[in-house]
Structure formats: structure tokens, C-alpha cells
Amino acid sequence: MSEQIPDPLAYPRPSSAASPQDGMTLRDHFAGEALGGMLGNVCNEHDRKTIRTNQKIVAEYAYKLADAMLIERMKGGAK
Predict the structure, then answer these.
(1) Is the dihedral of CA 78, 55, 25, 12 positive or negative?
(2) How many helices (H) and strands (E) in the chain?
(3) I want to staple 10 with a disulfide (CB 3.0 to 4.6 A). Which of 29, 35, 37, 67 is the partner?
(4) Single pTM value for the model
(5) pLDDT tens string 1-36
(6) Angle at 14 between CA 10 and CA 16, to 5 degrees
(7) Which has the closest alpha carbon to 75: 11, 5, 8?
(8) Are 14 and 5 spatial neighbours (Cβ–Cβ below 8 Å)?
């Protein structure tokens, strides 16, 4: 992802000594949603085999979609 694209936290919460993690980024959230949509449309064994043999490509595409969503968000979203 380009350093120009802001990637805020998806579910920000205050950090504490017991739980220093701030949560997932919006990019990770968008990629997960895109991946869920892609995998939710797998209808037959051929599609499942294609996904299994191209996992890296599918994951990369989910993040490309997430990056596109962040860029569109910077512009103010769809009008």
C-alpha cells in the first residue's frame, strides 16, 4: 500500500497496559470484508479448487480492493 493512503483504525479503542493493541486497521477490515464477499460466492467444486490453488492471488486482490476503497474514502466516497 502506498504511504499516501491513510489507514486509520477500524475500531479504535484506548490502549492500556493490559491490552496495548489498538485494533485492526481499516485496510484490514476492508480486505476481510472483500475476501468474505469473494469466498461467499464460491458455488461449485471448480470454484473451490481455483480458490485453493490461488490463495495468494485471492488475498492480494482483497487488499487491492481495500486500497481502492481507502482511496475512494479519501475523495469523499461515492457521490
Answers:
(1) positive
(2) 3, 0
(3) 29
(4) 0.73
(5) 545 887 877 776 666 656 656 678 899 999 999 999
(6) 130
(7) 5
(8) no
